[in-house]
Write a structure and sequence with these properties.
Elements: H1 2-5, E1 12-22, H2 32-39, E2 50-53, E3 59-63, H3 70-90, E4 93-96, H4 114-123, E5 134-140, H5 144-154, H6 158-165, E6 170-171, E7 174-175, H7 181-186, E8 192-193, H8 201-213, E9 224-225, E10 227-229, E11 235-242, H9 247-269, H10 279-292, E12 297-300, E13 305-308, H11 309-327, H12 330-343, H13 346-357, H14 359-370, H15 389-393
Parallel strand pairs: 8-9
Antiparallel strand pairs: 1-3, 1-4, 1-5, 2-3, 5-11, 6-7, 10-11, 12-13
């Protein structure tokens, strides 16, 4: 907490959620406790990186500390993934970076803790097998009113961030027509999706308090919107993305979000209010993103018309570009964006693996790329890898964090 209170505006932190599965069957296993004990639940960097349990005992989380650049962030993301993956292997399990599990199995018990128990009680069987895993990006901002104003500017871009991150085509062992079933699962909860346009932090807090009073949220810290002022830290928290298949894709999400926040801050300084993008069009764009990922069109909630997803992704990169150029990250982010265009989203890669060898082939592919030190690429061993070394070199600017 002290590290985040002292964070400079523009600094980054990322939380990644993972699922633990049996190495032989691919089914979720309730091994979070032993895996976290083996990995070390205390802070593992001077900037506050840590591991933690999630809602269900088949899930674990790795959170980076406060990072000033994408190179440092990439190093911390890789370290956290490698350490959790090694701890999982000691238990005969695999760590998967996927928005949802691939293989069906019995619902794992909830993780221990009073708050987790309250959440399970509040939402009943909707939460029973909610093994959804996301990538949460935090960008430090000066104050909560600024955070709310920045969230307004982010609203039109949240469906694009979701589409780019799509990495959960399976649902209970079945390969579905959706690119991200995690988004479908999240839609079952009250107050999910793109947040409403909000005039101030006081209005935001009043809206959340009303949802708590109505009994649909457990407490003020629990909202389901895809972007919000963090209830714990002085950051804007963007939770649109599925857990990224690779650390490189998590770096891409963080870079784009950081650039979009920077663009929003410039607009606010110039007195430019966020467009009041239509809520129903935002919901339509979010559904299109969940259904098609980057292979279809999204509803542009500002222009009010359908636009090819990759055209909107390029527009998003253009919007984020000046901030990324100032930090020296524009080249790396654009190159990583091109890697995803060539290799496909995480959902695309899961489908290709399953087409060759069924769900367990997708599980094995996910396990390999979760702790990979390379950006996503062709996963078939007979396919030559793309020339991506320069992309990943852009995220190698700092040494590995010291082990605990």
């Amino acid at each position: 907490m002290d590290h985040y209170r002292a964070a400079e505006p523009g600094t980054i932190g990322v939380e990644e959620e993972f699922v633990l599965v049996d190495a032989a069957t691919g089914r979720g296993v309730p091994d979070a406790g032993p895996v976290l004990a083996a990995a070390g639940t205390h802070r593992w960097t001077a900037t506050g990186g840590s591991f933690a349990p999630e809602l269900l005992s088949s899930q674990v989380e790795a959170a980076t500390g406060v990072c000033g650049d994408l190179g440092g962030l990439g190093a911390q993301l890789r370290f956290g993934r490698e350490r959790l993956a090694a701890a999982a292997r000691e238990r005969g399990a695999l760590l998967l970076a996927s928005g949802m599990p691939v293989v069906d199995g019995p619902p794992p018990p909830p993780a221990p803790g009073t708050r987790f128990a309250r959440v399970m009680d509040a939402y009943g069987d909707v939460m029973e097998d909610y093994q959804a895993c996301g990538c949460h990006v935090h960008i430090a901002v000066p104050d909560r009113d600024t955070a709310v104003a920045v969230v307004n500017h982010l609203r039109p871009w949240l469906p694009v961030l979701l589409a780019l991150s799509a990495n959960s085509p399976f649902d209970r062992g079945r390969l579905t027509a959706y690119a991200t079933r995690r988004a479908v699962a999240m839609a079952r909860f009250p107050g999910s999706g793109v947040p409403p346009w909000t005039a101030s932090a006081a209005e935001w807090d009043a809206r959340v308090a009303a949802l708590v009073e109505a009994g649909v949220l457990v407490d003020e810290a629990m909202t389901f919107w895809l972007a919000r002022p963090s209830p714990r830290w002085p950051t804007v928290e963007v939770r649109a993305a599925d857990t990224a298949g690779t650390a490189a894709e998590a770096v891409l999400q963080a870079g784009l979000v950081r650039g979009l926040v920077g663009a929003a801050l410039e607009d606010l300084e110039a007195g430019r209010e966020a467009p009041r993008a239509d809520g129903q069009l935002c919901a339509a764009a979010l559904w299109n993103a969940a259904r098609h990922g980057m292979s279809g069109t999204l509803a542009d909630p500002v222009a009010g018309r359908p636009v090819p997803a990759w055209r909107l992704a390029e527009a998003m990169a253009d919007r984020a570009g000046p901030t990324l150029a100032d930090s020296g990250d524009l080249g790396a982010v654009r190159a990583l964006l091109d890697v995803v265009r060539r290799a496909g989203t995480g959902a695309d890669r899961q489908r290709r693996a399953a087409a060759r060898g069924g769900p367990l082939a997708a599980v094995r592919m996910l396990a390999r790329q979760t702790a990979s030190r390379q950006p996503p690429g062709p996963e078939h061993p007979r396919e030559p890898p793309g020339d991506e070394s320069g992309v990943w070199d852009a995220c190698e600017r700092v040494p590995e964090p010291d082990a605990p």
